[in-house]
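Quarterly update from the structural biology core.
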Amino acid sequence: MQGNKTRAFTLLSWLVLTALLVTSLGVMPASAQPTNLGAGGEYIVLFANSSIPARAAAQVQAAGGTIVNEVPQIGMLVVTADADFPARARHISGVSEVGPNVMLTLDLPAERIVRDDLLVEGIEDNDLYVAYQWDIRRVGGDADTWAIQKGGGATVAVLDTGVFAAHPDIAPNYAYGKDLVDITIELPPGWIMWDQGGPQDYNGHGTHVAGSIAGAITSGRIIGVAPEASIANYKVMIAVITDENIATGIGFQSWIVDGIVTAADDGVDVINMSLGGWRYMNEPGGAAAYVSYVRATQYARQQGTLVVASSGNSALDLTAIRPVFHVPSGTPAAMSINATGPDDSLAFYSNYGASETRVVAPGGDISNMPLSMCLSAYSPLNAWAPGAGWVFSIGTSMAAPKVAGVAALIYAQNPGISPAQVEALLVQTADPVGDPGFSAEFGHGMVHAYRALTADRSTR
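Predicted structure, tokenized:
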């Protein structure tokens, strides 16, 4: 059964449930205690054995719920109902967890549009911005690597705010776009729906990510880590303007989980999620929110897809804050990616943790703004700086796509390779940074494309 894209529900009734990516203040995010469930809303219902029983629809209806979407691959239903539904639903045969369909919001530490006075004339006979892409070069994105492999034949799914398909840096490698969101949701008072629907990017974040992964050499102004890999656009967040006049992106967990499973079923090689939120396992419904991500990322891995996710921008030791989890990066089947600055130090905003960190990649910092930031493509349809096609930004959102790009090169170089083998190669060939050996901040080191492509197979 497909989700009803015409439904509407009140976003305001879920604001206290929201698991936000908080700013980089180094403090615990505010609890998402669901104090206003009396308003009702959407719920995630998970069944045991990752399958939906034949009588589930009738039983959900009898419990006062209406199914608006289902993801049978992981035994998940999305249900609209009143505040008392969770208590009733737990008596449905086979139900293992019930919890709110949590919202998350994009949060980047800083963004800047490209300034004309920074342009360098004559770079490769064009006004290319590659001179500012220190982050791409740091992970081996250069001529030596591309002489071996450019990523042709590999596909990376970008689960984000959409991708501006006509962008000159994106268009040569854009494969397709799928819309998994619902723009008919009722926003809080004073909020504006900037999004116009469809897979198009009205925020800019997804286009920035896509450019870092696979900005083409043949056109545009920037180059991605895997400049011939294909970009598959799965829109799981929408562009809004808040009552404080902040242009941002919001998305619900069910949209993201659906995107993970859909992309895996479509056979993509890599899923990049430069997004995330907090799940509180000691609060009502917390387990449903976490387990649905666990199942979705594990399903993707079983389908042959590597899942890469940003670790978040709260400067927290993720191992030390249990039972709070950052998801989807904190699921066992996802690679959690921390961010570094131009000097290879851990970025001031980046989360970290020995239990989750695999490798790191450049996310930029504010030590020499904007040149210490990460430059990539941007959607000119954005509300923050309408018409801007390139933006400097920082965050773990900028680190994850570098890892996804290197993974795409590995997939292209090694047809038939498994996600476990790709992850092992990324880890084994990482460039050491920080103290010798594994660390909570840097994991196994800085991901590096050239080292991964030239590694002896005996080390895999």
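The longest helix spans residues 396-413.
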